[in-house]
Amino acid sequence: MTTAGLTLGPGATRKRKEDSHASQRAIRVFDADNVMIADNVVSGPWRNGFSPFRLANSQIQRNQITGPVVDGVRTSSAGGGALGQVVRNLFSSNRVAGAGRAGVFAQRACANQFASNDLRGNAADLGLVLNDSTGANVVAGVENAVVVDNGAFDCDDDGRTDPNIITGGVTHRQPAPPDTGGAAPARRQRVPQPL
């Protein structure tokens, strides 16, 4: 199912009590195209504040996420080895603070823009992690805290890695912290070639 033209917000507020299961996501959008998720307030201890899966051509703007147990934003986090990418989205002017690992943990993510987000105040000042299943993403803005770029993915299947582009005076750090989210690693399916 594809959802088109959906707007979540403005001003939706999701709060979670300490005694609830922290494995849930406050905002979960999947199999969607051309949606706007804006002006929402999420306070923990959700496992992840916002967790898109197979989301394309959408805008995630001006959301405030505080206190998630793991990540403020976690892309493509589906268990059981489910494949799906988050592609060609704009993540802009969002604020994530108090995350247990990172403000944003991107996996299976290609050609997204992360612009002017405030990702300070998370564990070890870790703002954004682009894991090895990411590529062709653009990160811009000076409020991203530390950015870890392990992107090494061929997003357009042309046989070449599509590097992420990081600008705006951010600090790069390697290696990325371990992925404790329980999702299966991204698998690249290729047609076998004769020797």
Question: What key phrases describe this protein's structure?
Answer:
0% helix, disordered C terminus, 195 residues, seven-stranded parallel β-sheet, mainly beta, disordered N terminus
Order of helices and strands: EEEEEEEEEEEEEEEEEEEEEEEE
How is the main sheet built? 7 strands, parallel
Structural class: mainly beta
**How many domains comprise the coordinates?**
1
The proportion of residues forming helix, as a percent range, comes to: under 10%
Q: What is the strand arrangement across the widest sheet?
A: 2-6-10-14-18-21-23
Task: Give the radius of gyration.
Answer: 16 Å
Describe this structure in words.
The structure is a single chain. With 195 residues, the protein is mainly β. The protein has one domain. It contains no helices and 24 strands. The strands form five sheets. It has a seven-stranded parallel β-sheet, with no helix packed on it. It is globular and about 40 Å long. The N and C termini lie far apart (40 Å).
Brief characterization of the structure:
The protein is an all-beta fold and 195 residues long. The chain contains no helices and 24 strands. Residues 1-23 and 183-195 have low confidence and may be disordered.
Helices and strands in order:
Layout: E1 3-4, E2 7-8, E3 13-15, E4 25-27, E5 30-33, E6 36-38, E7 41-43, E8 48-50, E9 53-56, E10 59-61, E11 64-66, E12 71-74, E13 86-87, E14 90-92, E15 95-97, E16 102-106, E17 109-110, E18 113-115, E19 126-130, E20 134-135, E21 138-140, E22 146-149, E23 165-166, E24 171-172
Parallel strand pairs: 1-5, 2-6, 3-7, 4-8, 5-9, 6-10, 7-11, 8-12, 10-14, 11-15, 12-16, 13-17, 14-18, 16-19, 17-20, 18-21, 19-22, 21-23, 22-24
